[in-house]
Amino acid sequence: MIASAKEGFWNKLQAIDQRILYVLIIVVVALPLLRPLSLPITVTSATRTAYEKVDEYSGPGSVIVIAYEFIAGNWPEMGPIAVAMTQHLFRKPDIRIILLAMGRDQGPILAENTLKYIDEMGKEYGEDYVNLGFFAGAEAAMASFASDIPGLVKKDYYGTPIEQLPVMSGLNDLNDIDMFLCLWSGTPGWGEYLRQWQTPYGITVIGGTLGINGPGAQPYVSSGQLKGLVVGLRGGGEYEKLIGKPGEATSGLDAVSTTHLLIIAFIILGNVGYFAGRKRTGGEV
Amino acid sequence: MADIIVEIGIWVAAAYTLMIYSYPYKDTPLFKFAEHTMIGLGIAITTIMGIRNILDIAVGSIVNKGEFAWIIPILLGLALFTRYSRQYAWLSRWPLALLVGVGIGVSMGSSVDASFLAQIRSTVTGVNTLNKALLGIMIIITITYFIFSIGKEQREKGAFKYTSQLGRYVMMLCFGALFGNTIMTRMALFIGRMNFLLFEWLKLG
Amino acid sequence: MSLLKGKQIPIGITLVVGLMMIVNYYFGAALPAVKSTTTLIQNWTVIVAAFALIIGLINISRIHINHLLKRSKGQWFFSLWCLAIMYIMIALGLFGTTKNPGYQWLYNYVFLPVDATMYSSLAFFISSAAYRAFRARNVESILLLSSGVVIMLMNAPIGEIIWTGFPVIGDWIMSVPNVAAQRAIMICVVMGSVSLGLRTLLGMERGYLGREE
Fold first, then answer.
1. DSSP characters for C182-212?
2. Which residue in A76, A136, A222 is closest to B49 by CB distance?
3. Chains contacting C with at least 3 CB pairs below 8 Å?
4. What pLDDT does B8 receive?
5. Are B173 and C86 a contacting pair at CB < 8 A?
6. Is residue A40 part of a domain?
7. Of all residues in chain C, what percent carry a pLDDT higher than 70?
8. Both A65 and A199 in a single domain?
9. For C120, which residue in chain A has the nearest alpha carbon?
10. Would you say the ipTM is above 0.85?
């Protein structure tokens, strides 16, 4: 009787309505957002290296390209990274910043969205920074831009001829660019820029990407092809701490902690129930 | 007036958010409506970017600078649309061939250098720590897992049996890392939406 | 005429253009004529690719206009809405430019929330999978789950509070076995993609050209 009651309990636990799991997820996300736990965020060496490399390669007179190769669907995780890293660069005096996209057609508008969240520190559009928009063709566009910028780039995202934008003067090919900040969420993205920009021209690249892409990008950090990499919401929160401007990543990391603990609890409970159920039924599932 | 438009926008965004979240509960017409909205807008954005490229780069160069060579890619691009005609569909293969040829050519040229030689170079140089040595060993045993040209007997009885099994274990650690990071990404996206619902829509903070 | 309609010319185009790109990568600096020609071809490819983006519009329009004409039950209203919102957005973006307030509003308050929410709903499914599917049945799954749990606790600020070893072990997993496996897979993938690329350039793989007529 007791054995069959326990067997029923484990089976019931295994067959729990998934909507209960969904409600639990909602609760563990909402609670820390409404009542922050303010858990301390330690800056890891990876993010600190990326921050220091951005500092190192964006000295006065530098020309920086930022590629916004992600989509609206990734904005909650990529947005904080994009905002923090773009803000860091906009604080640098006497640099030229070129925003563009070659893999993702939403890049230009997401670049605009990023600029809404930052302090432009007196930088003027057209003089200090420019949004070149999107170029179709992915890897072919990257190859074209790298070898002949005026040949490909005729107008900016808003239709202004390039000749009327002082920020673009004197830029002929990728050798005239000092640093490249690649913010990517998939393909086309870093892999294509690696082949068309970093490998042939040896340009300094620092990256920011989704958590899911982090492990796949590690070999390039290890080999030095990526000088630094900021990964996921955790990386975004760390970067916000480094620039002294807490944002959505910082406020979201408490919920990251609670959800991760819940997922681990699910895994443990699911396995305990599975093995307990197996034991009761003599190894049959 | 601007504030009202923004507020309407927030309510519309919240409505669409809840429509999409109705799916885990049940597949509803509301979800289908939101899904079709996304498809329509997504295609529209892509089309606008494509047309802007054609007008700004090609047409602009012809009209403003007299660079008539840009007529060739415009004709090739137009040829893509012949795929909808039975009689002339063969024409659409030419621009496709250009796209594929350029795509393969530009990627093949540097992929050997970028993802093959550079990675091997990084593995074999500067092996001055235990971790770097371990890394090199792990790479070699993982590669043995992918050698399928060896006969079944040798794979199951020889040293390859152990190295490829160890290689699988190394890959499991890697996939675990991928899994852990995937959880962070998925949760981060959900946290972002909850942030919007709680603070921008319901104004609870 | 059969030569024009056949696959020989497209295969030839793929081969010549592909070889030019490869030669340019390795010898472009020494062959300025090749470099300038390949740059020109790459510029042209951007325009052809831009036309290819419009194919999506035509395909979606055909599908949904078909539903409208057939009055497909349970679908025609959604098709009507999809077409309407699509062409309204195109009109706003092209004739009003992307600075148009209507275009910006539709993107920021309709498309971005829908797209972000669509991706974020995976959080529910992954939590369900964590409970029902992630089983430590053998050595491999135990390794996978253990590694996953350590990485999760490395990513979550609370992990370091529970035990300071989680970030240390997590960092080791990311920089040693993860890099090892990713690198090994990358090396194998590059070999495979180069051989597939060569086969395509040489005309052995013709799938991209469609069926024979």
1. HHHHHHHHHHHHHHHHHHHHTTS--GGG---
2. A136
3. A, B
4. 96
5. no
6. no
7. 98
8. yes
9. A73
10. yes
- DSSP sequence for C19-51: HHHHHHHHHTTT-HHHHHHHHHHHHHHHHHHHH
Q: Compute the distance between CA of residue C57 and CA of residue B42 in angstroms, rounded to an integer.
A: 10
Give start and end residues of each alpha helix (H) in A125-203: 139-147, 149-152, 190-193, 199-201
Of the ranges A47-61, A236-250, C86-100, C171-185, which one carries the lowest mean pLDDT score?
Answer: C86-100
Q: Do C53 and B142 touch (CB under 8 A)?
A: no
Residue at B170 is within a domain: yes
Q: What is the pLDDT of residue A280?
A: 67
β-pair type (A63-69, A96-101): parallel
**In a shared domain, residues A123 and A182:** yes
Chain C positions in Cβ-Cβ contact with residue A271 (cut-off 8 Å): 134-136
Q: What is the CA radius of gyration of chain B?
A: 27
Exposed e or buried b per residue across B171-181, where buried means at least 16 C-beta atoms within 10 angstroms of its C-beta: bbbbbbbbbbb
Q: Which of A4-8, A75-79, B50-54 has the lowest mean pLDDT?
A: A4-8
User: Does the model's pTM come out above 0.90?
Assistant: yes
Question: Do B134 and C176 count as a contact with CB atoms less than 8 A apart?
Answer: yes
> Please, how many CA atoms are within 13 Å of residue B142, restricted to the half-sphere of its CB?
25
Burial class (CB within 10 angstroms; exposed 0-12, middle 13-18, buried 19+) of C121: buried
**Residue A7: is its pLDDT beyond 70?**
no
CA–CA dist A137, C145 (Å, integer): 39
B62: amino acid identity, one letter = I
- Same domain for A27 and A98, yes or no, is no
Confidence of residue A6 (pLDDT cuts 50, 70, 90): low
Residue type, B91: L
Q: Tell whether B144 is covered by a domain.
A: yes
Confirm whether A213 is domain-assigned: yes
What is the tally of structural domains in chain A?
A: 2
Instruction: Name the residue facing C182 among A16, A218, A269 (closest C-beta).
Output: A218
| Position A284 pLDDT exceeds 50 | no
State the average pLDDT over residues C127-140.
91
Domain that holds residue B169: 126-205
Kindly state whether residue B116 falls inside one of the protein's structural domains: no
Domain of residue A183: give its range: 45-246
pLDDT tens-digit map of B157-179 = 778 888 889 999 999 999 999 99
Contact check, Cβ <8 Å, C52/B80: yes
- Looking at the DSSP bridge assignments, the partners of residue A229 are A207
- The closest CB to that of B195, out of A33, A106, A224, belongs to A33
pLDDT for A282 beyond 70: no
Q: What's the structural domain count of chain B?
A: 1
pLDDT band per the 50, 70, 90 thresholds, residue C210: confident
Cβ neighbour number for residue A85 with a 10 Å cutoff: 26
A211 and A72 in a common domain: yes
